[in-house]
Design goal:
This protein is of the alpha+beta class. It is 50% helix and 16% strand. The protein has helices at residues 2-39, 64-70, 76-91, 96-115, 120-141, 150-161, 170-184, 262-285, 304-312, 326-333, 388-410, 420-435, 440-450, 453-461, 466-478, 505-523, 540-549, 553-560, and strands spanning 49-52, 58-61, 143-144, 198-204, 212-214, 216-219, 233-242, 290-294, 316-321, 350-361, 364-372, 379-385, 413-416, 484-487, 492-495, 502-504. It is elongated, with a radius of gyration of 33 Å.
Length: 565
């Protein structure tokens, strides 16, 4: 009788093992499929993707994080790659495509190791050993730079922009990105740069060559009031940002006032004029000549009568300031938001040399404030383009360039670009793998070979022979040419340091770390469990009462029996 039990247990164990293999295989296949989507977008000759979202809005981009974010990824494991790319975008700002391609290559290597019968935990531990060694090698081949070396920073930004739609404008955009970051950077804490202090204002019209850095404040969605010939330009501006309304007050509750005759109506209008005139006089007494008014949702922030009085006092008025812009404006101008007319004092005003309504072209207007006397560490960049799709991509590309400069401020070192660093890592890891004992030797060697996906993909996307390029790179790196990489524009192998094809070491180290961690997490998953949340009834009290008052099955049976029984 014992034999059938053993047989059944064996079948159960075998079925469980097969289920784990199927789950792991499905997870790896789904993640590799996502990585393959962005693989053709890697490098300066990478292809762009046109994405149409559920609202019908169209995007054209080759940024890995943007592509993956816009994709409707359903599989939970595939979504891990989307989150990984997002994390790379936050940490380094660049390398979002590379991190997805590396993760796909590591997963492909894992598939081959699993097919040889190696346990997933062993593969995971071996990949961690390879990552630790890779980071040490990366540290040894990186080159330290100084933030005062503006040219090196510009070359790094150009490398980031080389694979974008706006690559031909890299000579203009790269210096703008570098100067912007250096101006807001605290020299005592260079690693604590907040890119929210740099505002990118998009304006359709013109060309990308019209993009400029504004050392001041730019309000792209606002314009000055022209009512009663109000001023649209002010020299020696004294600027106030108010959060109260210059309009007749209303009751807290919805009520209606019935005016029975003309005399009563005249008294109401006279009181309104008197109330608004008092507000305008208090504002004028502080010598304020530029008034920024926050948008109100309860009532009109400013009436036409108030605009008329303000225009007579030669006060420039800018309406419809958004609530989320208040903090940035105050930080830029050194002003304090004023919540009530009684708090309106000269000490809370900001001062600037010029405040004017500018017209970048067409019917669009914007407010430009320059020459701020007590400026905060903020800047504005005006981004221009004749096409809406290119304008959006130019904004994303410029943000990536800003992130690259921020990465150099965090970790002041660079590595060779053009896949030179990946080939060198692969070469040294292969040597390190031979020193490992047992199964780790196979795993580290597989990790090293997976790194070759970067030069292979760069050559493939550039229309070159990937096998010849990778073979030549490996041979010459073995001879000691550790900075040799692929120059896509020339279609040849060059010393990337001399040719200024460089990138921040933080981008590479972050990509390796995030890709390895993601792959290790996927390898540890052996099953997908759907945890469904129990939904309680709409009226739980009534449900409980029914439970207590409903007859039990025995009582129901007795109630149906004849009384004689």
């Amino acid at each position: 009788m014992e034999e059938p039990k053993a047989k059944t247990g064996g079948k159960s164990f075998s079925a469980k093992s097969e289920k784990e293999k199927d789950t792991r295989s499905n997870n790896i296949t789904a993640a590799i499929a996502v990585a393959d989507v962005v693989r053709t977008s890697l490098g300066p000759r990478g292809m762009d993707k046109m994405i149409e979202d559920s609202n019908g809005e169209v995007f054209i981009t080759n940024d890995g994080a943007t592509i993956l974010k816009k994709m409707q990824v359903v599989h939970p494991t595939a979504r891990m790659l989307v989150e990984m790319s997002k994390a790379q975008d936050i940490e380094a700002g660049d390398g979002t495509t590379s991190v997805a391609v590396l993760a796909g290559a590591f997963l492909t290597a894992s598939q081959q190791l699993l097919a040889k019968g190696i346990h997933p935990s062993s593969i995971s531990d071996g990949f961690q050993i390879a990552l630790d060694k890779s980071l040490k090698i990366l540290e040894s081949i990186s080159i330290a730079i100084k933030l005062e070396d503006r040219e090196s920073l510009i070359e790094n930004a150009k490398t980031s922009l080389a694979s974008k739609v706006v690559a031909q404008n890299a000579d203009l955009l790269a210096p703008i990105a570098v100067d912007a970051v250096l101006k807001i950077m605290d020299k005592e804490k260079p690693g604590s740069i907040d890119l929210r202090d740099i505002r990118l204002v998009k304006k359709l019209g013109g060309t990308i060559e019209d993009t400029e850095l504004i050392d001041g404040l730019l309000l792209g969605n606002n314009k000055a009031s022209h009512l009663a010939n109000g001023p649209t330009k002010m020299e020696d501006a004294n600027i106030a940002l108010i959060q109260f309304c210059i309009s007749p007050p209303k009751t807290d509750m919805d009520q209606s006032v019935v005016v029975s005759n003309d005399a009563a109506m005249d008294r109401v209008i006279a009181q309104e004029k008197k109330y608004i005139l008092q507000l305008v006089k208090k504002i004028s007494e502080t010598k304020c000549n530029v008034l920024l008014i926050q948008k109100s949702i309860l009532r009109d922030a400013v009436t036409e009568l108030a605009l008329h009085f303000l225009a007579k006092k030669k006060i420039m008025v800018v309406k419809e300031i958004e609530r989320e812009d208040v903090e940035f404006i105050c930080k830029s101008l050194g002003t304090t938001p004023i919540a009530h007319i009684d708090q309106f004092t000269a000490e809370k005003l900001g001062h600037a040399k010029t405040c004017e309504e500018a017209s970048p072209g067409g019917n669009t207007k914007m407010i430009k404030i320059t020459g701020v006397k007590n400026p905060g560490k903020t800047l504005s960049i005006l981004v221009r383009s004749s096409n809406g799709l290119v304008l959006d991509e130019a904004e994303r590309s410029l943000h990536d360039a800003l992130c690259v400069v921020r990465s150099l401020a965090k970790k002041q070192s660079i590595v060779a670009g053009g896949s030179a660093v990946e080939v060198e890592l692969s070469q040294q890891l292969s040597v390190f793998a031979r020193e490992q004992a047992g199964i780790n030797s196979y795993i580290v060697n597989a990790y090293a070979q997976a790194l070759e996906v970067i030069p292979y993909t760069l050559a493939e996307n550039a229309g070159l022979s990937p096998i010849n390029v990778v073979t030549e790179l490996k041979n010459r790196h073995a001879k000691g040419e550790k900075f040799l990489g692929l120059d896509i524009k020339k279609g040849a192998l060059v010393d990337t340091i001399k040719e200024k094809i460089i990138q921040p070491s933080l981008v590479t180290s972050s990509a390796l770390t995030l890709a390895t961690e993601c792959v290790r997490a996927i390898l540890k998953i052996d099953d997908i469990v759907l945890a469904r949340q129990y939904t309680f009834p709409t009226y739980p009290f009534l449900y409980i009462c029914l439970l207590y008052t409903s007859p039990s099955p025995r009582d129901a049976t007795l109630s149906r029996m004849p009384s004689s029984a």
